[in-house]
Automatic annotation (TrEMBL):
It holds the Pfam family AAA_21. InterPro entries: ATPase_AAA_core, P-loop_NTPase. The keyword ATP-binding applies. It comes from Anabaena sphaerica FACHB-251. Keywords: ATP-binding, Nucleotide-binding. GO terms for molecular function: ATP binding; ATP hydrolysis activity. Residues 51-371 form the ATPase AAA-type core domain. This is ATP-binding protein. It comes from the Bacteria. Gene3D superfamilies: P-loop containing nucleotide triphosphate hydrolases (3.40.50.300).
Amino acid sequence: MLIEFSIGNYRSFKDKVTFSMVAANIVAKEKELDENNVFAVDDDLKLLKSAAIYGANASGKSNLAKALKFMKWFMINSSKETQSTEKIGVEPFGLSTETEAQPSFFEIVFLLNGKKYRYGFEATQENVVSEWLFDVPRSRETRLFERINDGNSSTINLSKRFKAEGIYPKTRHNALFLSVAAQFNVERAENILAWLTRKLQIVSGLHDKGYLDYTVSCLAENNINKEEILQLIKKLDLGIRELSVKETVITPDSLPKDIPDEVKKFIFKSGSHKSTTINTLHQKFDDNGNYVSMELFDLEDQESEGTKKIVAIAGPLVDTLKDGKIVIFDEFDARLHPLISKAIVELFNSKETNSKNAQLIFMTHDTNLLSNKLFRRDQIWFTEKNKYGATDLYSLVEYKVRNDASFESDYIKGRYGAIPFIGNLSQIIGEPNA
């Protein structure tokens, strides 16, 4: 489970932002949402099942998802998919002379096998400046390792409990020790990276076609999630009664005869290829309103962009819910009707459909979801840029809000900030010159 995530320029502490899934100690009317929206890890820690992040365009919402996506990739791949001469893919904050040369800071707090971990690192484009891993085996945090690299010297304080002796000298200046330790079969490092790979997914609502392959594979291979995926698609009022997936093996002989042989050889030098056709089935009626047959539509050519998105994300959503995973969903509401967005959130905020305590974190502009009947205050977050261009991230729980307040109305009125302040547009299109 995800507990917290922090990014920023750590040495300039004021520029660090922290997002938390820890449930606040809320009373009064919002207590009614606890049974569904919150789950207890132990007597001291309760976590949220979902959270929404709002903010104006260019306020930094997507940067949170991008930063976590980079952190995940770097943790998993820095030891094996980068060379010693390669730059690290961090982007320093360029609007301040104080921070533009400072290392970028990343930290994640999570639960793995019932144990709490805190892992993070600082990096410039040239070096990993520092790196640390702590766990909480009982009540107090203990260090598993802590690494410092100031450019002139490099040291590591390593606990025997981490069982990674002799590995640090094999760690490049632009790679993470955790990643290298996993490559050398250090069990705890392997478990952490396996958790990242299997349990934490970052999804773009604008580039969701890439997830269609997963959904299609579940449907085509009679995956254990197949029936739930079909039911989700059917019940979102798309008019779809069934989905048909047909895979055809393409060989050089099946291509048109006018394609030159050398082109065929080039195409198939890695072996045969498959073509997948996805059809949606809709009911067809006569002029008296009687059902007569099922009509096949080609998903790509005949369905709306919203329908294609729902089909694409249906597989990952079902998988996340059934396996207790975490999904970070940027541009969540793109091409989705507000009621469909709300229905997806309710799947996560439910004991029945989310018995494994999966977590949904999404960035959105859909103010229809800003309701005290759907969210507690600690589930609603805002991003706002200050006058220096830096992002401020804060929760609605920081505001005193009446029990009967309309979150949506108050947000649009600017009472929580995080909205665009639009200048006078009346003079943009003037009278044509005489």
